[in-house]
Fold this protein.
Amino acid sequence: MKVLVLGDSYCPVSSLAPAFEGLPGHVVTLADVVDEPSWRPLSSSEQRIRELLGSPAQVIAALDGHEILVVQAAPVTDAVLEAGPELKLVCVARGGPVNVDVEAATARGIPVVTTPGKNATAVAELTMAMIIMLARRIPEGIRHVEGGGEVFVDNYEGAHWFGHDLAGHTLGIVGFGQIGRRVAVRARAFGMRVLAYDPFVSAADIRQGGAEPTDELDELLEASHHVSLHARATAQNRGLFGSHQFARMRTGACFINTARDILVDEDALDTSLRSGHLAGAALDIASPSPEGTRHRLLASPNVLLLPHVGGATFETLTNGGRMAVAEIERLARGEPLLNLADPGVLAISGRPG
């Protein structure tokens, strides 16, 4: 089969290429789309997609009879699918196919697969780094030095920055998917007790993943020294952490979010930090500040904000390519696809489930 692999400025095709070198029996074309900041969605299909790089016109120009399309951020709209009547599969090398009109693909019987968990190790490792930094009050220390404060050389002067070991403390994980499970393994290696709350995961499964299940979120919040959020954002859990949840956390606890900003009421978090109820917070993603202004959460000294770098590792990009190749090989062998964005497409396409 003819396979078209389209990279972009975030995930260049050079990062995906090594995975496709081991794909015998297929003709693979590698190319990058170019950023088009001026592109604006016009059709209803274009308006259904987001978080994209390039434009549908670039993808259409590259299709040229390919049967399999692999993208990371390149847009796949109804016009793209219409221009590729030979398409048998669309692979999206990311956890969610937000840049693909899955509805249009399903209507044409074209399966769309994703690569969930490709960044799970990267995000779990960043989470542990954040927990350590908050426990040891690293954001405060960095601001002290960067603000012109003295760099001490005597151990006793470290009394200004007393923090905590992780061993013997409790980590509460909210959302026990691929990332949450990896965080649990790493936290236990630091000697932490690990609790987990996820209404969509059985207690037995949580225990097997190395954590103690809690029946209620409040139970986890009251018992944890650190609370780490790893829930998938949905319409139902928007603002999952608000005034009530922060109030139920123990005094001096720390909050970590490497999931999505819409899960957190930042007004409530800001209030809890300024009051001293929470000792610190670390967020890999937050709501944007007005241009040229400092984010308001940084007014609290022990807050760490990062520009959404959780999955930004070279290994994450390579993992996406490998997972896409595995799905292509399943298709070629006539086996069920593993990570279908819309399982209902099978009834239309007649492919194995």
Remarks:
- The chain has 14 helices and twelve strands.
- The radius of gyration is 23 Å.
- The longest strand covers residues 2-7.
